[in-house]
Amino acid sequence: MPFAQIYMIEGRTTEQKRAVIEKVTQALTEAVGAPKENVRVWITEVPKENWGIAGVSAQDLGR
Question: CB of 5 within 8 A of CB of 45?
Answer without folding.
Answer: no
